[in-house]
Amino acid sequence: RTRPSKSQKSSWATFLKSIASFSGDLSSLTAPPFILSPISLTEFPAYWCERPELFSAIADAKSDEERSILVLKWFISTLKGQYTSRNEKLGSEKKPLNPVLGELFYGYWPDINGRGQTDLVVEQVSHHPPITAYYIANEAKGISLQGHSAQKTSFSGGSIIVKQIGHAVLTVNLPGGGKEEFLITLPRLRIDGLWYGSPYIELAETSYIQSSTGWLSTIEYKGKGYFSGKSHTFKASLSPPGSSHAAHTYEGLWHQTSKDVRTGTIFTDVTSPKEEVTVKSVEEMDDWESRRLWRWVAKGIRDGDFETASKEKSKIENEQRQRRKDEQAAGTQWQLKHFDHVDSDPIYERLGKLFKANPPTEDAYVYRHNHNPGPTQAAASDL
Ligand code: 0T9
Q1: 64 and 215 in contact (C-beta within 8 Å)?
Q2: CA distances from 368 to 19, 48, 86, 136 (A)
Q3: Taking a C-beta distance cutoff of 8 angstroms, is the pair 224, 159 a contact?
């Protein structure tokens, strides 16, 4: 990486001051060009499935206990992609493009070796504050994940603290009929490295995976100087229904490997390459699809042509402002395409009670099952 220039340093200092005196929705702050990412937040839900075989393996569990272990294993294995992949790909954590209301992202992971095809539908359901809803399903295996993601940010001790708002529900159709549900809550993030202009994420505090069978995973996150002194450390314990005594404990580094504490065997290993989502070409995409919508802004950022990037971004923003004005004048409201909003998620309420989730209730976006998934198996194999 090249050293930042004098003017980059001073614009970064100005930006840090604006972050420090600000709390709430960081997405609306104008950041200096070198920290801009050409990728929109609507693409982020794809991180949930970049190891599709771990997702589909959940369907093969022989017992409730094993199913909870496999869900935890899949979940931990997504963290590297979710929280460190921009550093690997772009050099540091960067400010994602702030999606417009109604922005869409579709994709899939093909059926290979009988794992079934996994399909992804994402819709930006709010602009300010940004809220992203997603639905990921492997129909052949009878597994789906529905969730939404928003953030509350504050500034403390030189770091940005991000509280994740929203949750995900994983549903597994059981072989004998019926289904098992897992409520997944999300960890708190700290964005460190700001002073040096090279932000990275550390996870903090605790998140949970509560199964409707009663099995509960409690995952604790620590950075440098805690548990092991290493960054990206976690400890997870899995306890049986009605008990707080762990039947299994796991610990290690979520971006490398972890072990089953009792047996010493490997639990997660994400050192092998992940599988990025397959999407249509930009030419085939609809105008509302993220990569087409942001095409010229993203190109500007990638080429270092920030004048074009900012001009194209203004076009999108002005168009959005006009839309909102027109709606107001007509007394109409933007209609979501794939999701229905509910004020209280009954699954969150029911499963959240079991581990005293805070808050006790949350809203949700329920998928309408109205998107035709990507190519079928036959077409996918032509790729
Ligand atoms: C859900 C994820 C989330 C989205 C991002 C905080 C953040 C927006 C939300 C939580 C995904 O499942 C996981 C990963 C990264 C999170 C982003 C990291 C980040 O920096 C942004 C915020 C809004 C910023 O852009 C802050 C300003 C920037 C200069 C720091 C790099």
Answers
A1: yes
A2: 38, 20, 31, 12
A3: no
**If residue 238 lies in a helix (H) or strand (E), which one and from where to where?**
strand 233-239
| C-beta 149 within 6 A of ligand 1 | yes
Report pLDDT for 383.
Answer: 44
Span 241-290, pLDDT tens digits? 999 999 999 999 999 999 999 999 999 999 999 999 999 999 999 999 99
Nearest CA to ligand 1 atom 25: 95
Distance 44 CA to ligand 1 centre (A): 10
- Name the DSSP class of 71: H
DSSP 255: T
Residue 148: which H helix or E strand, with range? strand 143-156
Residue with CA nearest ligand 1 atom 22: 95
> Measured at the alpha carbon of residue 346, what is the angle toward residues 342 and 351, in degrees to the nearest 5?
140
Report in angstroms the alpha-carbon separations of 70 from 58, 77, 204, 242, 327: 6, 10, 23, 20, 46
27 lines ligand 1 (CB under 6 A): yes
- Dig out the tokens for 219 from the structure: 């995952």
Please provide residue 382's backbone torsions phi and psi, each rounded to the nearest 5 degrees: -80, -15
Pocket test for ligand 1, best of 23, 25, 26 (most atoms within 8 A of CB): 26
CA distance 135 to 281: 21
pTM (2 d.p.): 0.96
